[in-house]
Write a structure and sequence with these properties.
By secondary structure, the protein is α/β, with parallel strands linked by helices. The chain has helices at about 20-40, 60-75, 100-105, 135-150, 270-280, 310-315, 335-340, 350-360, 365-385, 390-400, and strands at about 5-10, 45-50, 80-85, 110, 120, 125-130, 160-165, 195-200, 205-210, 210-215, 230-240, 245-250, 255-260, 290-295, 320-330. The protein has 10 helices and 15 strands. The radius of gyration is 25 Å and the shape is globular.
Length: about 400
């Protein structure tokens, strides 16, 4: 086998104006430009993109221009781009298709699921790619059909790559933001040396099905949970024996995030506001995004609404943004009320649950509004357990229309 190398990148999320800031949209553009600069310096045989190139299925013109400019740079450098879609840039419907189709037609990338056999190869490597199906249920239903219609054909004499965008249901794979895994390991075909994944924002490498399962991670902070992750991508060099050496290529342009999670249990709102303002001032850094997650249980006489979030947001002078997240809980419903609700033997469980939710929501809303929200909570419990997305969507839409 002739030695070769490739770049594996994912989760670019181009066009994401996080916190409604154009500066954050530009940050995601800058990450792509740096990744392309470094890729051209490395001179790999090809680049793999494992989905979520864009943050929206229909990106803006300025975001498309960024993508086109950088993919053209790779094409001019003789580096083919092999891609699959992710949950963010997958086709919103069959008629319009994914935005990756016109980029494929323009010769700027090779959208694998669109091509015969869903594959690409050169003299040393075979690459097979599958589309994203968004949910576990749809993946279970549609991935086997796709594999049947586009049969994978890994060649033992070559280095074989399986390109995908989903969290595989394995205990050692960290699921993003407590979301359920979309793919069962049993659905993933055998015979591949390198399983190139996207969607899991934390980079990782582990053995899987006689090969390596690799998630390249994200290139910018999509959620503040990503803040501590080193942003970048992988560069794999494969020798004549088909053995890969995988190196991490770090990106330097990523925006600095400072995540603070103080616990203010038992403190009154005025004191919480004062303490939070001081904490923000102590951590104020040029150009940073400060995320302040305010935790704890308030005293019985206090309300969440009394915490002055505006004052907290204005506490920094150097940071790009202060983003407070209020996770303070108001004092729970008294135990005697809970007993009154749940010990009544004549009421069914739904009625008891409804009354319990009304008590909780009445602390923050009018009685009428609390009953509406409580009714919604009860109505979606059963379909949520059954993972009936359509029923949940129907109930949510009915509530929004009523409101």
């Amino acid at each position: 086998m002739k030695p070769f190398s490739f770049v594996h990148i994912a989760d670019l999320h181009l066009g994401y104006a996080q916190y409604n800031l154009d500066a954050r949209r530009q940050d995601f553009d800058n990450a792509l430009k740096e990744a392309v600069d470094k890729t051209i310096e490395l001179k790999p045989d090809f680049m793999l993109i494992a989905g979520d190139i864009f943050h929206q299925a229909r990106p803006s013109n300025i975001t498309l221009e960024t993508a086109i400019t950088n993919f053209r740079r790779l094409r001019d450098a003789g580096i083919p781009v092999l891609a699959v879609d992710g949950g963010h840039d997958s086709a919103p419907n069959i008629i319009t298709g994914t935005i990756l189709n016109p980029l494929d037609s323009a010769g700027l990338l090779h959208y694998l699921p669109r091509h015969e056999g869903a594959s690409w190869h050169n003299e040393s490597c075979y690459v097979y790619g599958v589309p994203n199906f968004r949910t576990r249920r749809k993946t279970d239903e549609q991935l086997p059909l796709f594999l049947e219609q586009n049969k994978p054909a890994p060649d033992p004499s070559m280095f074989n790559i399986f390109l995908f965008h989903m969290a595989i249901d394995l205990p050692y794979i960290e699921k993003p933001y407590q979301m359920e895994a979309e793919g069962s390991p049993e659905l993933i075909p055998e015979g591949f040396n390198y399983f190139a994944g996207g969607h899991v924002h934390k980079p990782s490498k582990t053995k899987f099905k006689n090969g390596l399962l690799v998630y390249s991670g994200c290139t910018e902070t999509v959620n503040y949970d990503d803040a501590q992750i080193e942003k970048g991508f992988f560069h794999a060099e494969v020798n004549e024996k088909g053995e890969p050496t995988i190196n991490r290529i770090a990106l330097q342009t990523s925006r600095r995030f400072i995540v603070l999670e103080p616990d203010y249990a038992g403190m009154l709102p005025a004191k919480i506001t004062h303490s939070a303002v001081q904490l923000v001032k102590e951590n104020d850094q040029e150009g940073a995004v400060i995320v302040l997650v305010v935790k704890g249980v308030l005293p019985a006489e206090a309300s969440r609404a009394e915490v002055d979030l505006a004052q907290i947001r204005e506490a920094a002078h150097k940071a790009l943004l202060v983003y407070p997240i209020l996770r303070m809980r108001e004092t729970e419903v008294p135990e005697e009320i809970i007993r009154t609700i749940f010990e009544g033997g004549l009421k069914d469980l739904k009625t008891k649950s409804f009354e319990y939710f009304v008590q909780i929501f009445s602390e923050r809303y009018s009685r009428e509004q609390a009953e509406k929200i409580a009714r919604l909570a009860v109505n979606v419990l059963d379909p949520l357990v059954r993972k009936d997305e359509e029923k949940v969507k129907h109930e949510m839409e009915a509530y929004m229309n009523e409101s």
